[in-house]
Every structure is written in C-alpha cells, then in structure tokens.
Amino acid sequence: MESRAGTDLGRAIALVLRGGTILAVAGIGAGFLLAIFNDAEVGPAPLVTMLRAGGADALIGAGLLAMTLTPAAALVAAAVVLARTGERRRAIIACLVLLLLLVGLAAAALLQGPS
Predict the structure, then answer these.
(1) Helices (DSSP H) in 38-87: which residue ranges?
(2) DSSP secondary structure letter of residue 16
C-alpha cells in the first residue's frame, strides 16, 4: 500500500508536468500558426531575442521557456509536498537537485556566447 506522501507527491509532479507540457506545446503551436498565417519567417534565435521580438517568435520563445522550466517547477512541487508531509531529508534533496538544475541553466545561458 502506498503512503499518503507518495500519492500526494505523484499527483503534484504529474499535475506540474502535464500543465507545463500543455503550456509549452500550446505556446509553440500558437506561434507557428501565427507565423504561417502571417507569412512570417521563424528561425533559430536566442531565446531572449525571440521573447523580445513579439508576434510568432515571442509565442514560440514562451513555449520553449515553459518547456525548459517545467522540470524545475516539478522539483519545486516535489519539495513542497515532501516538506509538508514531514519528509525533510527528501525535501532537501529535491532542493539541491533544483539548485543544480538552475545552475546548469544559468551556465548554459552565460556560455551561449554571441549569436
């Protein structure tokens, strides 16, 4: 029999992953549809440039950002559920993994170089 903490944890993570995926796919899809209907060109560009560009590029960039941050949001949800259920050690581990993920994302952004 599964514990209440395990059930709550699974539900929280599933909800965040499902929501993040739907948000990302909707943003990217809407951006591409907008580009198709406006005969706009969509090409590779840094994420910040896409978000600042407006229009189709901004929607696609927002979708990509949502896709990138969804695992971090799942870790936040896991840490919260674990902390609420008294699983302090596992909550700390989730926070450390979140910190590693965010450091990796920051390093990737800083090392991207000029485009």
Answers:
(1) 47-53, 55-84
(2) H
